């Protein structure tokens, strides 16, 4: 795909993104996008009300191949905007729990009739989610642990570190999609597994706690996070930004601790530093900060 395209007119998107937010999208969130890809990404965000700054949607570039993928947070957000949305429940079932399920004779849908907890609970045996919609039978998804073991064993996967959370999110996503048939209007595919802008193998995205986990295909979040942090460290040193100042800035912009920032939020932070801290001559006594230091910091 050629990069020699006319510059995109961002003015038409300023009623959805501010000019500064557009600059972050162009230069960080959808970095290396062609003008055509960028226009498509922004149009999808705008049309569906999805916010990349809240991790609803991701722009991912593999070499010259582009994929636009919606996270579990994005799917839940879309469901919550509906008038007939009546909530969703997700739980883990452990091997010592008492758990019973049957097929409802009227709706022919799965129905959980009993889930009681006993201690010690034992290992995780399954996850389930119940998506409720007014005027429709509940949709129940039950997934046994063996079905997601390949995700847990995938090198670099967030499933290794955050297995319980990832398992519950996986069930949650499937239940919401089944109940509401949520689709994103990208004129190509449904949310569950996007075809990229140019043909390649399909991938299924599941958001992570700190990075981007695409299910079977994983972008190494720690490696990417470390790269972005190296850029932030360089910039803060050049601008004489202290740990305290950076902590306060992160709290103000993201309302969370620095160590809780996702990869996408860290990318946005990297760009926001350019807007908020004017560049100055490097100070010899500037306090050096490592990625490990920042990971352990607690914002006041």
Automatic annotation (TrEMBL):
<dbReference type="Pfam" id="PF03837">
    <property type="entry name" value="RecT"/>
</dbReference>
<protein>
    <submittedName>
        <fullName>Recombinase RecT</fullName>
    </submittedName>
</protein>
<dbReference type="GO" id="GO:0003677">
    <property type="term" value="F:DNA binding"/>
</dbReference>
<dbReference type="InterPro" id="IPR018330">
    <property type="entry name" value="RecT_fam"/>
</dbReference>
<dbReference type="GO" id="GO:0006259">
    <property type="term" value="P:DNA metabolic process"/>
</dbReference>
<feature type="compositionally biased region" description="Acidic residues">
    <location>
        <begin position="290"/>
        <end position="300"/>
    </location>
</feature>
<feature type="region of interest" description="Disordered">
    <location>
        <begin position="281"/>
        <end position="300"/>
    </location>
</feature>
């Amino acid at each position: 795909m050629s990069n020699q395209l006319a510059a995109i007119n961002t003015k038409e998107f300023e009623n959805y993104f501010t000019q500064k937010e557009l600059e972050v999208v162009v230069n960080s969130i959808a970095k290396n996008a062609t003008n055509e890809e960028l226009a498509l990404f922004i149009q999808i965000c705008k049309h569906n009300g999805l916010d990349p700054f809240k991790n609803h949607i991701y722009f991912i570039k593999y070499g010259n191949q582009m994929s636009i993928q919606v996270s579990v947070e994005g799917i839940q957000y879309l469901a919550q905007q509906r008038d007939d949305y009546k909530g969703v429940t997700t739980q883990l079932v452990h091997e010592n729990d008492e758990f019973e399920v049957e097929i409802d004779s009227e709706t022919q849908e799965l129905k959980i009739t009993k889930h009681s907890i006993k201690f010690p609970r034992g290992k995780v045996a399954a996850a389930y989610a119940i998506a409720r919609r007014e005027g429709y039978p509940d949709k129940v998804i039950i997934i046994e642990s063996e079905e997601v073991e390949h995700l847990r064993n995938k090198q670099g996967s967030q499933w290794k570190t955050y297995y319980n959370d990832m398992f519950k999110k996986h069930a949650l996503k499937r239940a919401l999609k089944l109940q509401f048939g949520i689709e994103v209007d990208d004129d190509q595919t449904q949310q569950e597994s996007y075809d990229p802008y140019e043909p390649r193998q399909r991938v299924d995205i599941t958001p992570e706690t700190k990075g981007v986990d695409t299910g079977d295909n994983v972008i190494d979040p720690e490696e990417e996070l470390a790269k972005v942090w190296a850029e932030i460290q360089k910039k803060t040193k050049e601008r004489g930004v202290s740990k305290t100042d950076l902590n306060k800035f992160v709290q103000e912009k993201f309302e969370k601790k620095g160590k809780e920032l996702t990869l996408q939020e860290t990318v946005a932070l990297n760009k926001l530093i350019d807007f908020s801290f004017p560049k100055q001559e490097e100070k010899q006594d500037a306090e050096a900060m490592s990625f490990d230091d920042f990971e352990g910091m607690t914002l006041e």
